[in-house]
Amino acid sequence: MTCAHGAKIGRGLEPPAPAGLRGRARLLTVRHDSRHPCPTAGTAVMRLSSLCALLLALLVGCAPPGQLQAPGSPQTITVDRARDSAGPVFATQIAGPSTFLPPMPTAIVVLKPESLDRNRAFCQAFQRLPTVQEALAASVVAPNLVQTRWLTQLRDVPAHRAYDCDFLTGTYDYGRAAALMASVRTTPGAFAGQGPFLVLVVPEPTGLRFVGIDGSRYATSEFNQFVASWGRAVGDVQTRITSAPDSPGIVRSMVNLVAAVLRAVFGGAAGLIQGVINAA
Questions:
Q1: What's the structural domain count of the chain?
Q2: pLDDT of 73-104, one tens digit each?
Q3: CA nearest 150: which of 86, 107, 121, 112?
Q4: Which of 8, 17, 57, 217 gives 22 a disulfide partner, CB atoms 3.0 to 4.6 angstroms apart?
Q5: With the C-alpha atoms ordered 125, 131, 132, 138, is the resulting torsion angle positive or negative?
Protein backbone atom coordinates (compact mmCIF):
# COMPACT_ATOMS: atom_id res chain seq x y z
CA MET A 1 0.00 0.00 0.00
CA THR A 2 1.21 3.49 -0.82
CA CYS A 3 0.28 6.44 1.47
CA ALA A 4 -0.56 9.91 0.26
CA HIS A 5 2.91 11.21 1.23
CA GLY A 6 4.49 8.57 -0.98
CA ALA A 7 6.19 6.39 1.66
CA LYS A 8 5.69 2.65 1.32
CA ILE A 9 4.90 0.82 4.55
CA GLY A 10 5.78 -2.85 4.94
CA ARG A 11 8.74 -4.55 3.30
CA GLY A 12 9.47 -1.44 1.30
CA LEU A 13 10.76 0.25 4.47
CA GLU A 14 12.78 -2.73 5.62
CA PRO A 15 16.41 -1.53 5.82
CA PRO A 16 19.16 -3.84 4.58
CA ALA A 17 20.17 -5.93 7.58
CA PRO A 18 23.76 -6.73 8.48
CA ALA A 19 24.94 -10.20 7.45
CA GLY A 20 24.10 -12.74 10.17
CA LEU A 21 21.36 -10.51 11.71
CA ARG A 22 18.79 -10.51 8.92
CA GLY A 23 16.63 -13.17 10.57
CA ARG A 24 16.02 -10.93 13.59
CA ALA A 25 15.77 -7.74 11.57
CA ARG A 26 12.87 -9.13 9.55
CA LEU A 27 10.90 -9.77 12.73
CA LEU A 28 11.08 -6.06 13.50
CA THR A 29 9.88 -4.80 10.08
CA VAL A 30 7.15 -2.13 10.15
CA ARG A 31 3.89 -3.65 8.88
CA HIS A 32 0.70 -2.01 7.66
CA ASP A 33 -2.50 -3.25 6.02
CA SER A 34 -5.74 -1.79 4.78
CA ARG A 35 -7.63 -2.35 8.06
CA HIS A 36 -5.79 0.52 9.74
CA PRO A 37 -5.38 4.14 8.69
CA CYS A 38 -2.22 4.99 6.85
CA PRO A 39 0.36 6.32 9.36
CA THR A 40 1.88 9.71 8.88
CA ALA A 41 5.54 10.18 7.99
CA GLY A 42 6.22 11.34 11.57
CA THR A 43 4.62 8.23 13.01
CA ALA A 44 6.60 5.96 10.71
CA VAL A 45 9.86 7.67 11.66
CA MET A 46 9.02 7.38 15.38
CA ARG A 47 8.23 3.68 14.97
CA LEU A 48 11.46 3.05 13.07
CA SER A 49 13.45 4.94 15.72
CA SER A 50 11.84 2.89 18.49
CA LEU A 51 12.53 -0.34 16.64
CA CYS A 52 16.17 0.63 16.06
CA ALA A 53 16.53 1.41 19.77
CA LEU A 54 14.95 -1.94 20.64
CA LEU A 55 17.27 -3.79 18.27
CA LEU A 56 20.31 -2.07 19.78
CA ALA A 57 19.15 -2.90 23.30
CA LEU A 58 18.66 -6.54 22.38
CA LEU A 59 22.12 -6.79 20.84
CA VAL A 60 23.90 -5.06 23.71
CA GLY A 61 21.87 -6.67 26.47
CA CYS A 62 22.11 -10.25 25.26
CA ALA A 63 25.74 -10.49 24.23
CA PRO A 64 28.63 -10.92 26.67
CA PRO A 65 31.07 -8.00 26.86
CA GLY A 66 33.38 -7.99 23.85
CA GLN A 67 31.30 -10.53 21.90
CA LEU A 68 28.42 -10.37 19.44
CA GLN A 69 26.52 -13.61 18.80
CA ALA A 70 24.65 -13.51 15.51
CA PRO A 71 21.23 -15.28 15.59
CA GLY A 72 21.17 -18.47 13.56
CA SER A 73 24.96 -18.54 13.27
CA PRO A 74 27.41 -20.62 15.33
CA GLN A 75 30.19 -18.07 14.85
CA THR A 76 31.14 -15.55 17.52
CA ILE A 77 32.82 -12.26 16.68
CA THR A 78 35.34 -11.44 19.40
CA VAL A 79 36.55 -7.88 19.86
CA ASP A 80 40.21 -7.82 20.81
CA ARG A 81 40.21 -4.93 23.24
CA ALA A 82 43.85 -5.57 24.19
CA ARG A 83 44.99 -4.35 20.77
CA ASP A 84 43.53 -0.93 21.54
CA SER A 85 45.56 -0.64 24.73
CA ALA A 86 48.29 1.96 24.78
CA GLY A 87 50.29 -0.01 27.33
CA PRO A 88 53.34 -2.22 26.65
CA VAL A 89 52.97 -5.81 25.49
CA PHE A 90 54.76 -8.44 27.57
CA ALA A 91 55.60 -11.52 25.50
CA THR A 92 56.69 -14.84 26.96
CA GLN A 93 58.80 -17.71 25.60
CA ILE A 94 59.93 -21.11 26.80
CA ALA A 95 63.73 -21.35 26.98
CA GLY A 96 65.23 -24.79 26.43
CA PRO A 97 68.71 -26.00 27.48
CA SER A 98 70.14 -24.77 24.16
CA THR A 99 68.52 -21.31 24.30
CA PHE A 100 71.06 -18.49 24.51
CA LEU A 101 69.83 -16.23 27.32
CA PRO A 102 71.76 -12.97 26.65
CA PRO A 103 70.63 -10.76 23.74
CA MET A 104 71.29 -12.27 20.31
CA PRO A 105 73.02 -10.26 17.56
CA THR A 106 70.58 -8.43 15.29
CA ALA A 107 71.12 -8.06 11.55
CA ILE A 108 69.97 -5.01 9.56
CA VAL A 109 69.52 -4.37 5.85
CA VAL A 110 71.14 -0.99 5.12
CA LEU A 111 70.19 0.67 1.82
CA LYS A 112 70.90 3.97 0.08
CA PRO A 113 68.21 5.94 -1.78
CA GLU A 114 70.48 6.58 -4.78
CA SER A 115 70.25 2.91 -5.84
CA LEU A 116 66.51 2.22 -6.06
CA ASP A 117 66.78 -0.30 -8.91
CA ARG A 118 69.42 -2.24 -6.97
CA ASN A 119 67.31 -1.99 -3.83
CA ARG A 120 64.29 -3.50 -5.58
CA ALA A 121 66.41 -6.30 -7.05
CA PHE A 122 67.93 -6.98 -3.63
CA CYS A 123 64.47 -7.02 -2.06
CA GLN A 124 63.43 -9.79 -4.43
CA ALA A 125 66.43 -11.88 -3.34
CA PHE A 126 65.85 -10.98 0.32
CA GLN A 127 62.37 -12.55 0.15
CA ARG A 128 64.06 -15.95 -0.20
CA LEU A 129 65.03 -15.86 3.49
CA PRO A 130 62.51 -17.35 5.95
CA THR A 131 60.59 -14.89 8.09
CA VAL A 132 60.90 -14.76 11.87
CA GLN A 133 57.25 -15.82 12.13
CA GLU A 134 57.97 -18.95 10.08
CA ALA A 135 61.01 -19.81 12.21
CA LEU A 136 59.15 -19.32 15.50
CA ALA A 137 56.25 -21.48 14.31
CA ALA A 138 58.55 -24.52 14.18
CA SER A 139 58.64 -24.95 17.97
CA VAL A 140 57.31 -23.38 21.18
CA VAL A 141 60.86 -23.49 22.60
CA ALA A 142 62.75 -20.25 21.91
CA PRO A 143 65.28 -20.70 19.10
CA ASN A 144 68.53 -18.75 18.83
CA LEU A 145 67.51 -16.50 15.95
CA VAL A 146 69.65 -13.83 14.33
CA GLN A 147 66.88 -11.65 12.92
CA THR A 148 67.63 -9.72 9.71
CA ARG A 149 65.48 -6.58 9.79
CA TRP A 150 64.22 -4.50 6.88
CA LEU A 151 63.72 -0.89 8.01
CA THR A 152 60.42 0.83 7.21
CA GLN A 153 59.02 4.28 7.90
CA LEU A 154 55.59 2.83 8.72
CA ARG A 155 54.29 1.84 12.14
CA ASP A 156 52.50 -1.09 10.54
CA VAL A 157 52.67 -2.82 7.15
CA PRO A 158 49.60 -4.54 5.65
CA ALA A 159 50.16 -8.29 5.41
CA HIS A 160 49.49 -8.32 1.67
CA ARG A 161 52.32 -5.78 1.17
CA ALA A 162 54.96 -7.76 3.08
CA TYR A 163 56.28 -9.25 -0.19
CA ASP A 164 55.69 -6.20 -2.42
CA CYS A 165 59.19 -4.95 -3.20
CA ASP A 166 57.99 -1.73 -4.89
CA PHE A 167 56.14 -0.94 -1.65
CA LEU A 168 58.97 -2.05 0.66
CA THR A 169 61.67 -0.06 -1.15
CA GLY A 170 59.38 2.96 -1.42
CA THR A 171 58.66 2.96 2.32
CA TYR A 172 62.16 1.92 3.43
CA ASP A 173 63.53 4.18 6.19
CA TYR A 174 66.52 5.66 4.33
CA GLY A 175 66.89 8.37 6.98
CA ARG A 176 67.31 5.84 9.76
CA ALA A 177 69.77 3.84 7.66
CA ALA A 178 71.81 6.98 7.00
CA ALA A 179 71.86 7.79 10.72
CA LEU A 180 73.03 4.26 11.48
CA MET A 181 75.91 4.51 8.98
CA ALA A 182 76.87 7.91 10.39
CA SER A 183 76.95 6.52 13.94
CA VAL A 184 79.50 3.81 13.17
CA ARG A 185 83.18 4.36 13.91
CA THR A 186 84.90 2.30 11.27
CA THR A 187 87.41 2.50 8.42
CA PRO A 188 86.94 5.70 6.38
CA GLY A 189 84.94 5.02 3.22
CA ALA A 190 83.47 1.77 4.54
CA PHE A 191 80.02 2.84 3.34
CA ALA A 192 81.16 4.62 0.20
CA GLY A 193 79.75 1.93 -2.09
CA GLN A 194 76.25 1.79 -3.53
CA GLY A 195 75.22 -1.11 -1.30
CA PRO A 196 73.27 -2.98 -0.22
CA PHE A 197 74.92 -3.62 3.14
CA LEU A 198 74.08 -6.48 5.49
CA VAL A 199 75.26 -5.75 9.00
CA LEU A 200 75.13 -7.39 12.41
CA VAL A 201 74.84 -5.37 15.61
CA VAL A 202 76.50 -7.30 18.43
CA PRO A 203 75.82 -6.25 22.05
CA GLU A 204 78.87 -6.33 24.31
CA PRO A 205 79.45 -5.20 27.91
CA THR A 206 81.28 -2.12 26.65
CA GLY A 207 78.68 -1.16 24.02
CA LEU A 208 77.49 -2.12 20.56
CA ARG A 209 79.88 -3.62 18.01
CA PHE A 210 79.20 -3.67 14.30
CA VAL A 211 80.16 -6.35 11.75
CA GLY A 212 78.84 -6.38 8.20
CA ILE A 213 79.27 -7.18 4.52
CA ASP A 214 79.31 -4.62 1.70
CA GLY A 215 77.29 -5.94 -1.23
CA SER A 216 78.37 -3.19 -3.62
CA ARG A 217 80.63 -5.56 -5.58
CA TYR A 218 77.69 -7.84 -6.44
CA ALA A 219 75.76 -7.34 -9.66
CA THR A 220 71.98 -7.47 -9.36
CA SER A 221 72.06 -10.88 -11.07
CA GLU A 222 74.23 -12.13 -8.17
CA PHE A 223 71.96 -10.99 -5.35
CA ASN A 224 70.47 -14.47 -4.89
CA GLN A 225 74.00 -15.77 -4.30
CA PHE A 226 74.71 -12.85 -1.93
CA VAL A 227 71.59 -13.53 0.13
CA ALA A 228 72.18 -17.30 0.12
CA SER A 229 75.70 -16.74 1.50
CA TRP A 230 74.27 -14.45 4.16
CA GLY A 231 71.76 -17.14 5.11
CA ARG A 232 74.55 -19.69 5.50
CA ALA A 233 76.59 -17.29 7.64
CA VAL A 234 73.66 -16.49 9.92
CA GLY A 235 72.82 -20.19 10.19
CA ASP A 236 76.42 -20.98 11.16
CA VAL A 237 76.39 -18.28 13.86
CA GLN A 238 73.13 -19.63 15.25
CA THR A 239 74.45 -23.21 15.27
CA ARG A 240 77.64 -22.26 17.12
CA ILE A 241 75.71 -20.30 19.75
CA THR A 242 73.24 -23.16 20.21
CA SER A 243 76.07 -25.67 20.70
CA ALA A 244 77.40 -23.83 23.77
CA PRO A 245 74.77 -21.34 24.97
CA ASP A 246 76.17 -20.99 28.48
CA SER A 247 79.84 -20.67 27.55
CA PRO A 248 81.33 -17.44 28.91
CA GLY A 249 83.59 -17.34 25.88
CA ILE A 250 80.61 -17.02 23.54
CA VAL A 251 79.52 -13.77 25.19
CA ARG A 252 83.06 -12.35 25.43
CA SER A 253 83.99 -13.18 21.85
CA MET A 254 80.66 -12.90 20.03
CA VAL A 255 81.88 -10.21 17.65
CA ASN A 256 84.99 -12.28 16.82
CA LEU A 257 82.81 -15.33 16.20
CA VAL A 258 80.55 -13.38 13.81
CA ALA A 259 83.50 -11.83 11.96
CA ALA A 260 85.21 -15.22 11.58
CA VAL A 261 82.04 -16.78 10.15
CA LEU A 262 81.54 -13.91 7.67
CA ARG A 263 85.17 -14.18 6.49
CA ALA A 264 84.81 -17.94 6.02
CA VAL A 265 81.52 -17.74 4.09
CA PHE A 266 82.30 -14.70 1.95
CA GLY A 267 85.87 -15.67 1.11
CA GLY A 268 88.19 -13.52 3.18
CA ALA A 269 88.11 -9.95 4.41
CA ALA A 270 86.94 -8.43 1.10
CA GLY A 271 83.84 -6.38 1.79
CA LEU A 272 84.00 -6.98 5.55
CA ILE A 273 83.09 -3.93 7.66
CA GLN A 274 83.79 -3.72 11.39
CA GLY A 275 83.36 -0.93 13.88
CA VAL A 276 81.73 0.45 17.00
CA ILE A 277 78.35 2.17 17.15
CA ASN A 278 78.57 5.51 18.97
CA ALA A 279 76.11 5.85 21.81
CA ALA A 280 75.54 9.56 21.18
A1: 2
A2: 333 333 343 444 456 778 898 999 999 998 89
A3: 107
A4: 17
A5: negative
